[in-house]
Amino acid sequence: MAEKMLEHLGMKRESKSYVDSLHAILTHTGQFKGEKYMLAGYTGMAFKLSVHKRLLPMSVTAYGQWGVSHQGGIDNLGLFTIYDGGRSRHPTFVYYQQDAVNWVRRSLDEGKGVIYWIPEFGVIYGYDDADRVFYVQDGWSKEPHILLYDNFGLNFTGFWYCQIFGDHVQRTEQEMVLESLRLAIEDWDIPYRLLPDQNIASGRLAYDVWIEALYSGDYDASGAAYLLDSYCQSRTEIQMYLHDVRGLWTELEQASICYERLADLIGQMREYLVQDERRLVLRADANECLAQLLQDAKLLEEQAVDSFRQISVRYPDRKRFTIPRWGTHSAR
After folding, report:
1. Mean pLDDT throughout 26-53?
2. Which pLDDT tens digit goes with each residue over 248-301?
3. How many CB atoms sit inside 10 A of residue 233's CB?
4. Is 147 exposed, middle or buried (0-12, 13-18, 19+ CB in 10 A)?
5. Which residues lie below 8 Å from residue 85, measured CB to CB, with a gap of 6+?
6. Helices 286-312 and 173-189, interaxial angle, to 10°?
C-alpha cells in the first residue's frame, strides 16, 4: 500500500483561503517566490469583493463560480491546471469522486499539493492507501484534518472542489499586472456573479448591499465581523501590491494613492472589530460609522478602477474582444 506526505508544505491563513492554499503549494514547488500579497494581486483574488445581503460568513468565498473565478488568475500566472467540482447531490458525483481521488494521489506522488474545499479552501498534502485517507491542512490548526477517500467532496455546504497544478510558462511582470487590472475591472463592474441568485452582490454593488445591511441592522453578527476582517486584509494586500508595481504606469501611482488613503480608513474600520468569546464581532456602535467609512472607501476604489481603465484601453485585449468566426463561445 502506497503512502505519501509532502514535507515542508505549510499553509497559513492570512488572506483569502484560496490564495493561502495556492501560495503554500506554489512556494513548496518553487513555482512562485514572491510575497503572498503579490500572488493575491497577480491572480486578481485580492480585488474580489462579494457580500450577502445579510452579511453571512459565506460572503467571503461566494465571489462566483469557483472554476471560472479562479481560472483567470491561474492563467495569468502561466500555470497549467486541472480542477473539478460541483454539487455532491448530483447522481454522477460518486464517479467524479473516485476519479478525483486518483488524480489527487498522482499529484501528490509528483510532489505537488492540491487545493481542496473543506470548507473553506485548504491543502491536501498527503495520503495513506492503507487507511484510505488524505491529510488536509486548513491553515488554522497545526494538526492535519483526516479525510477518508469515501468522504472526499462531502461537507455541509453541498459543494465540492479540488484543483491540481502542473508546469508553467514564464510571463513578464507587465503582462501579469495588466491582466490583474483587467480582472479587477471585471469584478468591480459585474454586480451579480451567481445569477439567478441576487442575494449576493459583487464589486461596486457589494458596497451598497453592505452599507444597506448595516443601516438596517438585520445581519449575521459573526458574518459581519468575518467579512470586515477579510475585507481589511484584501484591501491591505492591494495597497501593498500596487505600491510594488506602481512604477510600471503613471496611472498606477494615482491608484496606489487611492489605496493608501483607503488604508487609513481600514485603520479606523478595524477599531470596530472586537473579540467576544473566541470570535470576532462588531462593536455595538459600529453600524452607522462603519457604513460611512465604507461609502468613502467605495469612492476611493471607484477612482482607482478608473485609473486601471486608463491603462487597459492603451493595450489590445484579444482575450475579451476578439470574436471568432463561430461566435462568442468556444466550439464544443
Report:
1. 97
2. 999 999 999 999 999 999 999 999 999 887 788 899 999 999 999 999 999 999
3. 18
4. buried
5. 66, 67, 117, 159, 160, 161, 162
6. 130
For 83, left (φ over 0), alpha (ψ -120 to 50), or beta? beta
Give the 3-state secondary structure of residue 66: helix
Long-range contacts of range 125-128, CB-CB < 8 Å, 24 or more positions apart? 125/5, 125/6, 125/9, 126/3, 126/4, 126/5, 126/6, 127/2, 127/3, 127/4, 128/1, 128/3
The label of the residue with cell 448595516 reads 214
- Residue 24 corresponds to which amino acid? A
pLDDT at residue 203 tops 80: yes
SS3 content of the chain, % helix, strand, coil (to 5): 50, 15, 30
Spell out the alpha helix ranges (H) of the chain: 17-29, 36-42, 66-77, 93-109, 173-189, 203-216, 221-245, 250-270, 286-312, 318-321
Indicate the pTM of the whole model.
0.93
pLDDT in tens, 90-107: 999 999 999 999 999 999
DSSP bridge partners of 201? 51
> What's the Cα-to-Cα distance from 331 to each of 95, 204, 319, 324, rounded to whole Å?
26, 33, 15, 10
